[in-house]
Amino acid sequence: MRTPIMAGNWKMHKTIGEAVELAQGIQAATVHLAGAEIVLCPPFTAISAVAEAVAGSQIKVGAQNMHWEKQGAFTGEVSPLMLANLCQYVILGHSERRQHFAETDAGVNQKVKAALVHHLRPIVCCGENLAQNEAGETAEVVGGQVRAALAGLTPEQVAQVVIAYEPVWAIGSGKAAEPAAVNSIIGLNIRGVIAEMFGEGTAQTVRIQYGGSVKLDNSDAFMVQPNIDGALVGGASLTVGSFLPLIESAARHG
Ligand code: PGA
């Protein structure tokens, strides 16, 4: 059984004070909740304060990116060593990083390996853009991103990884993908690829989220799908009122 994982990607939102307030609100509202893992991913500046705010609770904390080197002359970057004692997860290869910061499949693979060495669990993002979707290239694009991101890992390492399937056209657009179609892409082109690479047993243990305009009125439809193990949520993770029902939705279907 895979425990669903509901992760909030706060992107470039929230000052330290705002982040702590939101984290405290989510913590207070989920004290008695069971059946879903909750991960909050604030900007780097607020990770420490959020980690402190949720210490001792079931809530986990994640970063939104990191460099693959432990240290060095990389102005503006944050290393896995710096995150290792601060948080448990790290989002890697988000489409906004691929699109605006020129991240490549090879770079994402280096980051995934570095995260695992430092006992950080990667949430690896993949997903086709609109042109690729319309050209019927979804399977090839998503399968290729997954193959590249997981290349060279052991099955034991892959079991620590979470994958987030996020069609680029669904992110922040208010137009979520179709749940049954997502279930099939995840089954064939993500879980199927992991099975080819690492065996069926490993493929069945890896948690795979959907991301892209998940909100109250569509969350259940995604969470009931057998291949979807939670969601990576942007916009709707920014208030307690909009994120709590999504956590509850994941927990109901856990
Ligand atoms: P969204 O973002 O929920 O605002 O569409 C999802 C994401 O980018 O992870």
Characterise this structure.
The protein is of the alpha/beta class. It has twelve helices and eight strands. It has helices at 16-29, 44-54, 80-84, 95-100, 105-117, 130-134, 138-150, 155-158, 179-198, 200-205, 216-223, 240-252, and strands at 5-9, 37-41, 60-63, 89-92, 121-126, 162-165, 207-211, 230-233. The chain has an eight-stranded parallel β-barrel, surrounded by six helices. Strand 2 (37-41), helix 2 and strand 3 (60-63) form a beta-alpha-beta unit. Helix 7 (138-150) packs across helix 9. The longest helix has 20 residues, at 179-198. It binds 2-phosphoglycolic acid.
Give a quick precis of the structure.
This protein is α/β, with parallel strands linked by helices and 254 residues long. It has 12 helices and 8 strands. The model has no long low-confidence stretch (mean pLDDT 98).
Secondary structure elements and their pairing?
Blueprint: E1 5-9, H1 16-29, E2 37-41, H2 44-54, E3 60-63, H3 80-84, E4 89-92, H4 95-100, H5 105-117, E5 121-126, H6 130-134, H7 138-150, H8 155-158, E6 162-165, H9 179-198, H10 200-205, E7 207-211, H11 216-223, E8 230-233, H12 240-252
Parallel strand pairs: 1-2, 1-8, 2-3, 3-4, 4-5, 5-6, 6-7, 7-8
Helix pairs in contact: 1-2, 5-7, 7-9, 11-12
The structure holds 2-phosphoglycolic acid.
